[in-house]
Specification:
With 430 residues, the chain is mainly alpha-helical. The protein is built from 18 helices and 6 strands.
Amino acid sequence: MKTVSLVGSALCLFAFAAQAQSEADQNVSRGEYLARAANCVACHTMPGGDALAGGLKMATPVGDIYVTNVTPDDETGIGTYSLEDFDNAMRHGVAQDGHRLYPAMPYPSYAKISDEDIEALYDYFMNEVPAVRAENKQNEIPWILSFRWPLAIWNVLFFDDETYAMDEDQSAAWNRGAYLVQGLGHCGACHTPRGILWNEAGFDESDPEYLAGAFLDNWYASDLTQSNRAGLGRWSQDELATYLKTGRNMHSTAFGTMDEVIINSTQYLSDDDLDAMATYLISLPAAHDDGEYSYDESTVAVLRGPERRTNSGANLYMQNCESCHVDTGAGYPPYLPPVAGNPPVMDPDPASLINIVLNGSSRLIVDGTPDAYRMPGYRKTLNDQQIADIVSFMRTSWGNGAADVTAGQVAGLRALTEQADDRMPVLRMK
């Protein structure tokens, strides 16, 4: 990244951060606010378990790992960690006893966190989080892949431990947004493609693949650049900020692991911080030249005419989808999203659309209120070919222009996934 650290710029960013915090929930400390921005609770908490007590199973290329207890319990948590120990784990991927953490812990992103914010986070974890005695589970990794010394080489090749530096050519809002997106929010951990050694392709806008979209955990984390069809090219800054606050806007609705981001993290951020994140994201050039989206109304004639009877996808759409998403594909946004022009519908990888048609959506909870409209899953009522026909119809209709999917692709995801959990809890920090 082209950056110059100046005292004036640093003070400007600090002032913006202070203002954002002052406009956030007055009942939380700065450390808790930062922990929410970093969404620590989503990975370090079992559904229905004690906050931050670990135990969540996470799939990685080398095997399954269990996330650790990060409450201040002296025996099973991080209660004996010094500030230096905490910093080493957060920003360098090294635990107190010296073993290296797998980059499933997003320390390559957290490396950008400032010293002041690390201190605030440490104070929160040590003095506000209740200590919970919860033994950490053994990872399920074949012994031949369990050695951690290669991670030192991985870090040399792919890890930059520099904290975020202001870009003097950009506004304070842009810099605050970049700091949140690149660092605390670690958006790139999901939305940036990874290499053969599980390295992110880039960590900021200087790399054209940064936030360009990536397959992860049986979902496709969407392109967050200005790509017109499958990215954010048709979203306004206000629409993006609204999505981060509520999980919904006129273009799309949160799904999959993004639900957890809305439930546990971004809905709690100040309007200024959400606007800053949107300011930064909207500035990113398109990662893909995927053409302009243009609505095609000829699909409506197909759905309303006799030829529908010979089109399996169209017929199944009318039977299972039309009541919510209507024959124009417009839906009833922001609560029932459109399928016409919806970026995830046009993703180059159809995994997310297959997954949500197959398994439905988990419950989105904003301001303590569960959503009233959920996508049902059809894994029990439709076979692989029927789901492939519906998904293909949606991806190729109303001008969406994406590729068909096969029954084999549906079968593959059916074997790896399960019905969405209707009991998704709100995971409070306290």
